[in-house]
Specification:
It is found in: Cell inner membrane. It catalyses: NAD(+) + NADPH + H(+)(in) = NADH + NADP(+) + H(+)(out). It is a multi-pass membrane protein. One of its GO terms (molecular function) is oxidoreductase activity. InterPro entries: Ala_DH/PNT_CS2, AlaDH/PNT_N, AlaDH/PNT_NAD(H)-bd, NAD(P)-bd_dom_sf, NADP_transhyd_a, NADP_transhyd_a_C. By secondary structure, the protein is an alpha/beta fold. The protein has 2 domains: 229 residues, NAD(P)-binding Rossmann-like Domain (Rossmann fold); 108 residues, no CATH class. It is 44% helix and 10% strand. It contains 13 helices and 12 strands. The strands form 3 sheets. A 7-stranded mixed beta sheet has the order 6-5-4-7-8-10-9. It has a 3-stranded antiparallel beta sheet with strand order 1-11-12. Helix 2 packs parallel to helix 3. The longest helix is centred in the C-terminal third of the chain and has 30 residues. The protein starts with 5 loop residues before the first helix and ends in a 5-residue tail after the last helix.
Length: 421
């Protein structure tokens, strides 16, 4: 990073050359295709979980076997940037219980989408923490660090694996996990310090080595995690370079053209024709605001109380008594039709009402015969000479015909699904 090597920037600016920093791409959507830092961090986060699983020596996922019950591994990811999110996804896919922390509250939804649990360090009484405007975490105040230390001290004694990814651009890595926290971890636990190249987030980390503490905790400080997946790293890095060359050759003629009006090209340019252009002007990054801590409780409608059995039976008996009374006072010729009508209503209600919604379409197809009988009966009533009977017969023919033609149309569409075009 040019911010960590001012002496190198000074030497480069003494020569008539142009220098670009591939790890200085701003965190904006348009620049993601050439963001080498994100590509390598993604690989490193995945590889950190692989290294932790190898050193852990036990299952990540919980199992219940004849030999006993195996609890799932508990993983804590410090920092939910690109590397942290990759580690969360990889550990979660292996079946571990994953928790993650980050000073940027806007990443909580991203952690949850990967199956992790976001642990907030911010005191709820103080409201929502400041949203990042650069896409990276920043140095926090002493009060935040004190609360952070208390949270990590509690989590360290409970988890099996800690993966730290906390970095601040242009500054040494913050010290997050102290020696006391390491000493409180269970024997056999693993810590992967992904910030080892910049000083480390863990007290006791040795750069490019894996050490074993007195209480049996293994601390891994490898700085070549991305290089341990060489084929994948080469593929992604090559793609980033191709996208960079496409950006620098807008005319597609092979002539490199630096446009300082483009915020991406301006941000990655360290030296231009022997003139130092570092540091670039800050780039504002829009981030999704964190969810409000005290959202208004949604209005919950009270569920409608179901009708009691006694009331339901009472209404049924009352309706049956009214029907039988009506049949008793009706003429003898009408009584038979009323009984048939009542039975048809009961049978039709239970037959049609209990049909699943997915079967309504084929049901329309097979009810053509019933609708056809209704049409025939209505046609026989038209010539009775009574105006009211003729009007009712006409309405019956109209409604039943709609069902008949609709049934044929549905049947045709159903059969067309099984015919070759």
């Amino acid at each position: 990073s040019p911010a960590l090597r001012p002496d190198l920037v000074e030497k480069l600016s003494s020569r008539p050359i142009t220098v670009l920093a591939m790890d200085a791409v701003p965190r904006i959507s348009r620049a993601q295709s050439l963001d080498v830092l994100s590509s390598m961090a993604n690989i490193a986060g995945y590889r950190a979980v692989v290294e932790a699983a190898h050193a852990f020596g036990r299952f990540f996922t919980g199992q219940v076997t004849a030999a006993g019950k195996v609890p799932p591994a508990k993983v804590l990811v410090v920092g939910a940037g690109v590397a942290g999110l990759a580690a969360i996804g990889a550990a979660g896919s292996l079946g571990a219980i994953v928790k993650a922390t980050d000073p940027r509250p806007e990443v909580a939804d991203q952690v949850a989408s990967l199956g992790g649990e976001y642990v907030s360090v911010t005191d709820p009484a103080e409201g929502v923490a400041e949203v990042s405007t650069t896409g990276y975490a920043k140095e926090m105040d002493d009060d935040y660090k004190a609360r952070e230390a208390a949270v990590y001290a509690e989590l360290a004694a409970d988890v099996d694996i800690i993966i730290t990814t906390a970095l601040i651009p242009g500054r040494p890595a913050p010290r997050i996990i102290t020696a006391e926290m390491v000493a409180s971890m269970k024997p056999g636990s693993v810590i992967v310090d992904m910030a080892a190249a910049n000083g480390g987030n863990v007290e006791g980390t040795v750069k490019d080595e894996a050490i074993l503490t007195d209480n049996g905790v293994r601390i891994i400080g490898y700085t070549d995690l991305a290089g341990r997946l060489p084929a994948q790293a080469s593929q992604l890095y090559g793609t980033n370079l191709v996208n960079l060359l496409k950006l620098l050759t807008p005319e597609k003629d092979g002539v490199l053209t630096l446009d300082f009006d483009d915020v991406v090209q301006r941000s990655i340019t360290v030296v231009r024709d022997g003139q130092s252009t570092w540091p670039p002007p800050p780039v504002q990054v829009s981030a999704a605001p964190a969810a409000a801590t005290a959202a208004a409780a949604p209005v919950v409608k009270e569920p409608k109380k179901p009708m009691s059995t006694a009331r339901r039976l009472g209404l049924t008996f009352a309706a049956a008594a009214a029907l039988f009374a009506f049949i008793a006072i009706s003429p003898a010729a009408l009584q038979v039709h009323l009984v048939v009508f009542a039975l048809a209503i009961v049978i039709g209600y239970y037959v049609i009402g209990n049909v699943h919604h997915a079967l309504h379409t084929p049901l329309m197809s097979v009810t053509n015969a019933i609708s056809g009988i209704i049409v025939v009966g209505a046609l026989l009533q038209i010539g009775q000479g009574d105006t009211a009977i003729t009007a009712l017969a006409f309405v019956a023919i109209l409604l039943a015909s709609i069902n008949v033609f609709g049934g044929f149309a549905v049947t045709r569409r159903m059969l067309a699904m099984f015919s070759r075009s």
